[in-house]
Amino acid sequence: MANIPDLELAQFLLLTQTLTSPLKLFNIAKNEKRLLYTSAPMVRYSKLAFRQTVFAYGTDLCWTPMVLAKEFNRNRFARDSDFTISTKGPQPPTIVQFGANVPQELARASSLVVPFSSGVDLNCGCPQSWACAETLGAALMEKRELVRDMVVETRDQLRRDGWGVGKEKDIDNPKGKSVSVKIRVHKDLRKTIDFITTVLGPDQDRHIDWLTIHPRTRSTPSSTPINIEALEILTSTFGDRVPILLSGDVFALSALPFTSPLLHPSPTFTTTDTITITMPPTPALPAVSSDAPILAHLPKLAGLMSARAILANPALYAGHDACPWEAVEAFLNNVARCPLPFKLVLHHLSEMCAPGMGPNKSALLSKAERTEMMACGNMLDLVDYLEDKKGVRRDM
């Protein structure tokens, strides 16, 4: 594990050789007749140990938590704490997400991280009041020209730095990097179409490599289902021009709120240094009754982004409908190599050991057992507690 300023030249060269253009990952998934699988940028949670865990279970592309570009540019402490990478063991293909509202700030911050990542992403979806008050996150959905200027300036800066930002032209370039945007939708979908049209730019040289759409408005709570009709319209309108990821309500591969010709994936077999992960068979689709609602068909959707569900079940994309014990072990092994604050480890495990977001509501630990786990005072006590509980489950 290393922070950016600590990398030696040999480590840097080794790292850059393992990076893959994200657009190539889109192509690989398409050739395998499946959607691209990604993990969302989650505040506190999308740290290296978690990214390594979901990567071992079939996640193709991982996001960091949102990083504030202005502070990242000015503060070494922010750089050390906000972006940590691996020089030994798996380095998942990683997109660094920034919060920014000034083109030069986003371009400078992107220039700092792209040697150690697969690309950068601009957050135009965070609905939190503090972010919107600073004209960050979802507030940028009212600033389409500014967003366009930020991604154009960033791409120009990366090009001047010598990186391959020619989109499909650099798909096999070892120095290929991506620039993308994550958005929400407006109540009036025409505004969203205008926003995407402006940010996307001309077909012959579009400004972004792909787009992530969270089909809720800035004020829509996460308990409300996503606007699948809006997603259907947007993917139909723009899906041939740019790859589109869905963020929101990705709770289980067998229980998505739409249909697609790419929804019958064959799970990828993955191994790590310490654990062999056996993938179960692809889950069968549930039987459809005659009175079941007709689901929207999204043939032009390119991939999925999961947040709450993958936090509870890092093996989501491997076909597990609930978090397995081996995922807990894999996470703890990664934490041993890439330490996290102990309270954060507890929060991760409380999510993983509780009922998940999908239809399967089984849990590794009961509510009372999770309360006991949260009372552990250090890693040794925590590991001993989980080993005891796992042993009890095996004896049952």
From TrEMBL:
Keyword Transcription regulation on entry: no
Matching SUPFAM superfamilies: FMN-linked oxidoreductases
Cofactor: FMN
InterPro entries: Aldolase_TIM (IPR013785), DUS-like_FMN-bd (IPR035587), tRNA_hU_synthase_CS (IPR018517)
Residues covered by the DUS-like FMN-binding domain: 40-255
Range of residues in the leader sequence: none
Catalytic activity, reaction form: a 5,6-dihydrouridine in mRNA + NADP(+) = a uridine in mRNA + NADPH + H(+); a 5,6-dihydrouridine in mRNA + NAD(+) = a uridine in mRNA + NADH + H(+)
One Pfam family matching this protein: Dus
GO molecular function, one term: flavin adenine dinucleotide binding
CDD domains: DUS_like_FMN
Taxonomy, superkingdom: Eukaryota
UniProt keyword list: Flavoprotein, FMN, mRNA processing, Oxidoreductase, tRNA processing
GO terms of biological process kind: mRNA processing
The protein's role, per its UniProt record: Catalyzes the synthesis of dihydrouridine, a modified base found in the D-loop of most tRNAs. Specifically modifies U47 in cytoplasmic tRNAs. Catalyzes the synthesis of dihydrouridine in some mRNAs, thereby affecting their translation.
Protein name as catalogued: tRNA-dihydrouridine synthase
Natural source organism: Dichotomopilus funicola
